[in-house]
Write a structure and sequence with these properties.
The complex is a heterodimer of chains A (184) and B (252). Chain A has helices at residues 5-8, 20-27, 32-43, 46-62, 73-92, 100-103, 115-124, 128-139, 144-151, 155-176; strands at 112-113, 179-180. Mean pLDDT of chain A is 78; it is low at 1-17 and 97-110. By secondary structure, chain A is mostly helical. Chain B has a 6-stranded antiparallel sheet with strand order 1-2-3-6-5-4. The chains are: A mainly alpha (184), B alpha+beta (252).
């Protein structure tokens, strides 16, 4: 059984419905895992991704009064994270990192792997753009309009990018040609 | 809706963003076209498999949440984002230093403004409302007053008398907490107030500021010279306070 909210925070720090802290912990903090997944995609390193999520949540906490109740808190948090990431990159004069697997999409020798591992490896071989839209749409559940707003691109671009990303993922799965567990 | 259209709007269909009318068209086409229905099902299965695979390798967020919780509970100065760069810190530090350096100037400017408005109020109170009877009028009274208040300044009265004006009266008054000699000069029907006090060299010198006191229809101009400072007050548009202040600066 995973950690619940009451286990993450000491009992004396629990709050009651109606206060700002309670609302933040119930509306914003549950999206921490999704933020960390996206931060890992953007940063590539776990420690940096965790720092980015931490600053995102603290920034959201400081500006929580600006969050409109009833609107999509997850989308609001992802925008903060994306903005912080851009700021960091500009400050450091960095270009978006290109993971090694995109530079040289290698194919390891056939081995016994599960369907899940097969999918993870195929996904890892996609371009950064394709991984990003698939992660946001399929895993995080954002709509095309929300993704377009987050990435600052037209909706048509998101739609075509999603179509190409699914095609690429399917191709990567077929190219991997694994020997699945139980198939021998 | 045809097969090409279905392919185009498929991402919107999968994310549940199609409008009701488009959705009905799409569902109708999918019932009739096996190829498109298979494509939609294949994408759904692919999405589900991807979702499972990604969620399975999601890292534990409890460490981040603990850190967030600690920072939230920390005093405000410890909540300053770690992402603030050295560049930004330098800019903030520079702003603080500039603010500290300019604070005395701001204070003096504000004090000067307060004094000018108080002088305008005093001018109105003395000359329009006639609230104070303790004026020195006669030449003897004025001479004694000058000797008491400005013992080191010979011919001061002549120096501060505006061109074409004559002294009407003078009294000692409290303006914004400081004692000033309030001289009233008359030019025809216009009255000009000169508030004057001696100051140690280099201190509390009023700049050539010019303020309008719209409430009383007055205008005020500051002046200062070696050992003396003050303001000129007069009816707006009638008494050239700025010019008189300029003349006083040169004359004193």
């Amino acid at each position: 059984m995973g950690l619940g909210w009451t286990q993450l925070f000491p009992a004396h720090e629990l709050t009651m419905p109606g206060d700002r802290k309670f609302e933040f912990e119930n509306v914003a903090l549950p999206h921490a895992a999704g933020l960390l997944r996206y931060a890992l995609h953007l940063e590539g390193q776990k420690a940096r991704a965790e720092d980015l999520v931490q600053e995102t949540l603290l920034s959201a906490w400081r500006n929580f009064h600006q969050f409109e109740r009833g609107t999509n808190c997850k989308a609001w948090l992802f925008r903060i994270l994306k903005n912080l990431h851009y700021k960091q990159m500009r400050r450091n004069g960095q270009q978006p990192e290109v993971p090694l697997e995109e530079q040289a999409p290698g194919f390891s020798a056939p081995e016994r792997i599960s369907a899940t591992q097969e999918m993870q490896e195929a996904f890892a071989r996609l371009t950064s753009e394709h991984k990003e839209v698939l992660q946001l749409a399929v895993v995080e559940g954002f709509g095309v309009r929300e993704i377009a707003e987050l990435l600052q691109v037209p909706q048509g671009t998101v739609m075509s990018r999603l179509s190409r990303a699914r095609t690429s993922l399917r191709a990567a799965l077929q190219a991997r040609a694994p020997v699945r567990e139980g198939s021998l | 809706m045809n097969c090409n259209t279905v392919h185009d709007v498929l991402p919107l269909y999968l994310s549940g963003e199609l409008r009701a009318e488009e959705l009905a068209d799409m569902q109708l086409h999918l019932r009739e076209c096996q190829r498109c229905a298979a494509e939609v099902n294949a994408d759904r299965e692919l999405d589900e498999a991807l979702r499972t695979a990604i969620l399975e390798e999601t890292p534990d967020v409890s460490a981040v949440l603990h850190r967030v919780h600690e920072r939230k509970a920390a005093p405000w100065w410890k909540q300053v984002p770690h992402l603030v760069s050295a560049h930004m810190a330098a800019v903030v530090a520079a702003i603080i230093v500039i603010a500290l350096i300019s604070l005395p100037g701001v204070y003096v400017h504000r004090a000067q403004r307060n004094m000018a408005l108080a002088a305008a109020s005093d001018h109105y109170s003395d000359l329009v409302l006639l609230r104070h009877p303790d004026w020195e009028h006669t030449p003897e009274e004025v001479a004694r007053f000058m000797q008491q208040q400005f013992p080191q300044k010979q011919n001061l009265l002549h120096a501060i008398t505006p061109d074409g004006a004559s002294l009407e009266k003078v009294r000692l008054c409290n303006v914004d907490g400081t004692l000033y000699a309030h001289f009233v000069f008359r030019t025809g029907t216009a009255e000009t107030s000169v508030f004057l006090r001696a100051i140690p060299e280099g201190r509390d010198r009023y700049q050539a500021a010019h303020l309008s006191d719209g409430e009383h229809g007055l205008e005020v101009a500051g002046f200062s010279s070696s050992g003396l400072t003050g303001v000129v007050v007069g009816q707006q548009g009638v008494v050239p306070t700025r010019e008189i202040a300029g003349q006083l600066t040169k004359a004193l």
